Amino acid sequence: MKQGYRVGIAGASSLLGQELLRVLKEREFPVSCLLTFEVDEEEPDLPVVDLSEHLEAVAADEKVPAMELDFIFLAARHGQTPPSLRLALEAVRAGATTTGQAPHCVVIDLVEALGESSDGAPRGVMSVPFLERAAHGAEATPPSGVLISAHPAAIALSGLLLRLAARFPLKGTVAQVFFPASEMGAQGIEELQRQTVNLLSFQKVPQSVFGTQLAFNLLAQLGGRHSAELTAVENNIRRQLRQYLANRVPLPALRVFQVPVFYCLAISLYVETAQPGAPEALGAALAGEHIRVRRRSEPAPSQVEATGSSDILVDTIAPDPDHPTGAWLWAAVDNIRLAAVNAVEIAESLRN
After folding, report:
1. 192 and 271 in contact (C-beta within 8 Å)?
2. Which among 29, 27, 25 has a CA at the least distance from the CA of 51?
3. Which of 59, 143, 220, 344 has a CA that sits 20 to 30 A from residue 350's CA?
4. pLDDT (tens digit, 9 = 90+) per residue, 119-154?
5. What are 352's strand-pairing partners?
């Protein structure tokens, strides 16, 4: 569209939704109007808001039916689908599966809010544009309809493994992912902050989000009624890796841990190659779009440093002293930022 696209965001007030707004503005994505859909069941209206100064102004009382949007980003957590969006989403899904023509509206699901089909398959096609550009040598346009922007841990692991395997065939991999509080949304950030302050002042710590003490601690699973949540996310990342990697590289043995960090996830990745490879050569294989590898003289990237970056920051590759073909990678990435950037890049790949 010459004047821009009509864009809707479900969960625009969440951490992920706010980052989507920033990325759309920074990348000057052509938007003529923006609709924000609240996840609150009591919210009946679809307010049209001005995205930024570079967008054409839209009358405050104008209403655009969800069915007439060009892109809908789903950033609402915990599988919540706003009631005002359900008919549009059902129409897009039906159009993507029962007709030979692509539906007009494209849904980009950042949190798999649409869930799985009856056979356990995701309700959409997974896309990581920067990896698809590298594989196809050009901008690879995914099919329209419902597209899934993979979890940032799955994006980062896929990027690292596919880049390495393109130069050094892999025998096996093991990955540990360290989750920040921001994976639980703004509530997680607030609870970790309150836990930290309360512990230092010898007061009882709140546990409504994590179910146990996270401050000054590391968790292999959450506590109380949340005990299965970390395992569920871990299984979701495994499933996404199976789908996206599609036997191109060995699937990593994976564990996820919750750590007392506010923003950005970290990854400890062990790989075994078919033949020994020098750390410098392994690092050179990794470097490229969205992946930055440190020089030996530079300090290791941290989760604090990765905040606000769209890149996956990787430390110098360290060979394993007891395994000639083994090597260790340490990486840090802003989980919220990477998820938002990947979703917007999917939309950019579909622009006319």
Report:
1. no
2. 25
3. 59
4. 556 678 899 999 988 766 555 556 668 899 999 999
5. none
Is residue 188 assigned to a domain? Answer: yes
Rounded CA-CA distance 328/101 in Å is: 46
Q: How far apart are CA 164 and CA 178, in angstroms?
A: 21
Query: How far, in Å, CA of 266 to CA of 172, rounded?
Result: 20
Q: Are 48 and 34 in contact (CB under 8 A)?
A: yes
Within 13 Å and on the Cβ side, how many CA atoms surround 248? Answer: 18
Last residue of a domain, one of 67, 101, 123: 123
- Strand pairing of 5-10 and 31-37? parallel
163 Rama class: left (phi>0) / alpha (psi -120 to 50) / beta: alpha
CATH of the domain at 118: 3.40.50
Residue 9 and residue 80 in one domain: yes
| Whole-number Cα distances in Å, 248 to 2, 47, 162, 308 | 39, 44, 8, 31
Q: List the one residue out of 148, 163, 67, 114 whose CA is nearest residue 346.
A: 148
- Cα–Cα distance between 83 and 164 in angstroms, integer? 44
Bigger pLDDT: 309 vs 48: 309
Q: How far is CA 271 from the centre of its chain?
A: 23
Quote the pTM value: 0.86
Q: Which domain holds residue 31?
A: 5-123
Same domain, 175 and 301: yes
> Euclidean distance between the first and final Cα of the chain, in Å?
7
Task: Give me the chain's average pLDDT, please.
Answer: 84
